[in-house]
Design goal:
The complex is a heterodimer of chains A (358) and B (267).
Chain A: H1 2-20, H2 40-43, H3 53-61, H4 81-84, E1 89-90, H5 119-122, E2 140-142, E3 145-147, H6 152-160, H7 173-177, E4 183-184, H8 218-221, E5 235-236, H9 268-272, H10 280-285, E6 307-308, E7 331-334, E8 342-348, E9 351-357
Antiparallel strand pairs in A: 1-5, 2-3, 4-6, 7-8, 8-9
Chain B: H1 2-21, H2 100-104, H3 114-123, H4 127-130, H5 158-164, E1 170-171, H6 174-181, E2 204-205, H7 207-210, H8 245-256
Antiparallel strand pairs in B: 1-2
Classes of the chains: A alpha+beta (358), B mainly alpha (267).
């Protein structure tokens, strides 16, 4: 019996030693080297019914002037998210106070549920780590079961796809990025177009070597404009929380800055040299001296940035700018896949294409 | 057999090592030299807020240390020679909708009972709010002086029991564990049966599962920063092997909430 007790004590001692070991994968909030008060750092005086709320997160991750610095050993890793979230374009965290419920199951099935985004919608406070920002986040509702979120886009889809409370102006991103579409930016899988002549390495249509990048993350386009800010899509000075500027306006003067988001992956010289489309530069740069911006128009006038359910080459006309041709048609017709030839039926800047072939 | 004996010797040495390191445990209830812990309500105790007033006559029990909770004779039949009236408060129980035991074992999760009920005979917000701590079951009430009722963070009202505190008095057995592990929202959180802390004889998690009312096994470190500055990190914690209050506190939490430190990777 004494032996048995001794062995139990030995096992206990070992388990305690293990509990104290921290590795680079240790979730931040479980790392006692970072949080000297351990669980008590957050859970002393914790209101379990409402959860810690964003104030709980911001008490360390917010304004340094209001920060309880003694709760943490080093403030080196901490960012002022309060400031970040006050940038012009942001996930509405600060505005969503008290809207999150720990009972909610996403995508939302109640069309009256308030749209919101709280810290805990994307980050699980116990399991989040610097190497895995989304560890432990609740999965996607799929019938009566929750399936684990294993890729970033699945996390984004929790709110931006099949939510019953998706506002009318938002498009279901799952439908836009579906690999069954004629064209899409390669989020869910590799793209279909095998001849994207403007692609800058390491981006490639299909992955053939280890360094090739043929699949993107939402975060490759959506994130902070500032390299010193957290990379995630918390906020940006650019619309749609984009990492680089992307002008969607008509009558825009072409510049590296105007379409710098696109030019991260697509070679500007290739596009302006019409390598893929005979009249590319004419549309982008314009040639009407009477118009502001010389009549150039945004990539967005002809291309959707997510995916097109109608056409290849991400072609979807922006009907705020483009209207039907004189014969009442608004469409793009391809002449042989991959031949860089086609025809358009549309009216734009007073010019009738009915059709215009290239 | 020899091997087992060697392992035992090593184990005992490890245990002794732990025992040595736990010398920094909090004060014993009986330590009158440097001052007993907070559960010693004797007038002789030092450095505590809640304690009896100095005795006025030789018959006063103000200097005793056990009498506030225990009596050798005519105790109530609850347990441990109990010398307090039961709290008459209806507390309800922890009300978060995410609590699996509410759905799977509702009948086994109700009013605080067992030893938790004993703790609440002082910490209940009624005794503490209206009845002096010196209102023992046997003998005359003991004069507690100015601080005769618990106030503030040590007070457990019905509201706090429902939402501001860890649930108590629920059965935690294999069936409950399986239910938690099969819950879609809880399954990643690695719940397990405790190895360090003890459930009561009916497998219920009580105040005493985590707290030792007689002695804090851990150091009595305090929070150094607001809003909890000066507050003891781990009051009356049952575990003290880490020689660090917050580590001991976390070891107790993690005993059931075995949160994985290697969460699954995300692409």
């Amino acid at each position: 019996m004494a032996y048995l007790i001794s062995i139990v004590l030995l096992v206990m001692s070992l388990s305690v030693a293990t509990a104290q070991a921290a590795s680079s994968f240790t979730p931040f909030h479980l790392d006692r080297q970072k949080l000297p008060y351990g669980c008590g750092s957050c859970h002393v005086g914790f209101e379990f019914r409402s959860g810690g709320g964003q104030e709980g997160c911001l008490s360390c991750h917010g304004n340094p002037a209001k920060r309880k610095t003694g709760l943490i050993r080093s403030t080196a890793d901490l960012v002022d998210f309060e400031k970040e979230l006050k940038k012009t374009y942001h996930h509405p965290i600060l505005e969503s106070k008290n809207l999150h419920s720990n009972k909610e199951i996403l995508p939302e099935i109640d069309h009256k549920a308030p749209r919101h985004s709280d810290c805990v919608d994307c980050h699980s406070p116990h399991l989040v780590s610097s190497s895995n920002k989304f560890a432990g986040i609740k999965g996607k509702k799929n019938g009566n079961i929750l399936t684990d979120v294993t890729t970033e886009y699945q996390l984004c889809y929790l709110c931006h796809s099949d939510s019953a409370n998706l506002p009318g102006r938002f498009v279901n991103k799952r439908i836009e990025f579906a690999v069954s579409n004629p064209s899409f930016h390669p989020i869910e899988g590799e793209g279909k177009n095998l001849a994207v002549v403007s692609l800058i390495r390491p981006y490639k249509e299909k992955k053939t070597t280890a360094n090739d990048v043929s699949v993107l993350k939402c975060g490759d386009c959506h994130g902070s404009d500032d390299a010193n800010s957290p990379a995630g899509p918390h906020s940006s000075i650019y619309q749609y929380i984009l990492r680089e500027n992307y002008s969607a306006r008509d009558n825009e003067t072409e510049s590296i800055f105007a379409y710098s988001l696109c030019y991260k992956c697509h070679n500007r010289n290739s596009i302006l040299a019409d390598e893929s489309f005979k009249f590319h530069s004419m549309h982008i740069k314009g040639k009407k001296s009477s118009m502001p911006g010389n009549g150039g128009t945004s990539c967005h006038t002809c291309h959707t940035s997510h995916g097109s359910t109608e056409n290849r080459y991400l072609i979807r006309f922006n009907t705020d700018i483009v209207s039907a041709s004189s014969s009442g048609m608004l469409k793009f017709k391809e002449k042989g896949a991959g031949t860089f030839r086609g025809e358009c039926f549309l009216t734009c800047h007073g010019v009738d294409h009915n059709p215009k072939s290239y | 057999m020899n091997n087992i004996r060697k392992i035992s010797i090593v184990a005992v040495l490890v245990f002794l090592g732990n025992a040595v390191s736990s010398l920094a445990a909090g004060p014993k209830i009986s330590d009158m030299v440097v001052g007993g812990n907070k559960h010693n309500l004797s007038s002789l105790n030092k450095n505590v807020l809640y304690k009896a007033a100095p005795p006025q006559s030789a018959r006063d029990k103000n200097t005793e240390i056990c009498v506030f909770c225990h009596t050798p004779h005519r105790a109530v039949p609850q347990t441990t020679l109990w010398n307090r009236s039961n709290s008459s408060v209806f507390f309800g129980h922890y009300s978060s909708a995410t609590l699996v035991i509410r759905r799977t074992s509702a009948a086994q999760f109700g009013e605080p009972n067992g030893t938790s009920r004993l703790c609440l005979s002082c910490h209940d917000g009624v005794t503490a709010g209206g009845v002096p701590l010196g209102a023992i079951l046997n003998g005359s009430p003991i004069n507690m002086g100015a601080n005769d009722r618990i106030t503030g963070i040590s007070l457990f009202t019905a509201s706090k029991i429902k939402s501001g505190h860890h649930p108590v008095s629920f059965i935690y057995d294999d069936a409950v564990l399986r239910a938690i592990q099969s819950d879609v929202l809880k399954k990643t959180q690695n719940y397990q049966m405790p190895r360090i802390v003890k459930l009561d004889t009916a497998n219920r998690m009580q105040c005493t599962t985590c707290h030792d009312p007689h002695q804090n096994q851990s150091t009595e470190d305090s929070y150094q920063v607001p809003p909890n500055e000066g507050r003891k990190i781990a009051p009356f914690w049952v575990y003290g092997a880490n020689n660090n209050a917050s580590l001991d506190h976390d070891a107790v939490c993690m005993d059931c909430h075995s949160i994985p430190t290697n969460p699954f990777p995300l692409q």
